[in-house]
Specification:
The protein is globular, with a radius of gyration of 17 Å. The chain has a three-stranded antiparallel β-sheet with strand order 1-2-3. The chain has about 190 residues and is mainly alpha-helical. Helix content is about 60%, strand content about 5%. The chain folds into two domains: about 60 residues, Chitosanase, subunit A, domain 1; about 120 residues, no CATH class. The chain is built from nine helices and three strands, in the order H-E-E-E-H-H-H-H-H-H-H-H.
């Protein structure tokens, strides 16, 4: 998942990248999400008020859904102000696995990296970004410096990779997607 080389992060850039990667209309028989357009599943499109054929979902509507559901609602915009590479990873993982799962990876990694709560207290893995998660992120970045963001990103990607493999092991039909998930969703950041 490519991210900008500089420290600023633009949600439009992330949204364009995910739409480019996800492509147009897809209806793969092994994809439990069913028909998608621009990476937006039919269930999400319907929940967001789109009633037309999935083949016809306008790109602009997909962009608005990504911004609302996968950037603003989970507070990844607040993470981006502190750690752009982490926010980019959260967005991409959130699109692919759900924002609760992505946020849970962040919280688990923050807890594992706090040196037995010496650097900052453990936080609840409640799958929602709030003041305690942001405070833990701020503390990690303050204590560990610039390298802290890179190590946190690696920890989150390790959790993501383990989940992909476990999914393929539990549901052999998902092996059709494993190579692409690992190739296109893990280790692509320029943190």
């Amino acid at each position: 998942m490519p991210t900008p080389n500089n420290r600023s992060l633009d949600a439009d850039t992330l949204i364009d990248a995910v739409i480019d990667r996800e492509g147009g209309y897809v209806n793969h028989p092994a994809d439990r999400g069913g028909p998608t357009r621009w990476g937006i599943t039919e269930a999400v499109a319907r929940a967001e008020g789109y009633g037309g054929a999935m083949r016809d979902l306008p790109r602009g509507e997909a962009e608005a859904i990504y911004r609302r559901l996968y950037w603003q609602r989970p507070a990844y915009d607040q993470v981006a102000r502190r750690a752009p590479a982490i926010a980019a990873e959260l967005f991409d993982t959130g699109v692919n696995m759900g924002t609760g799962t992505a946020t849970g990876f962040l919280q688990r990694a923050l807890n594992a990296l706090n040196r037995a709560a010496r650097d900052y207290p453990d936080i609840a893995v409640d799958r929602a970004i709030g003041p305690r998660t942001l405070s833990a992120l701020d503390a990690l970045l303050r204590v560990r410096g610039a390298g802290g963001e890179t190590v946190l990103l690696r920890a989150m990607e390790a959790l993501q990779g383990e989940r992909y493999i476990a999914l393929a092991e539990r549901r052999p039909s998902q092996e059709a997607f494993l190579y692409g998930w690992l190739a296109n969703r893990i280790g692509q950041s320029d943190a």
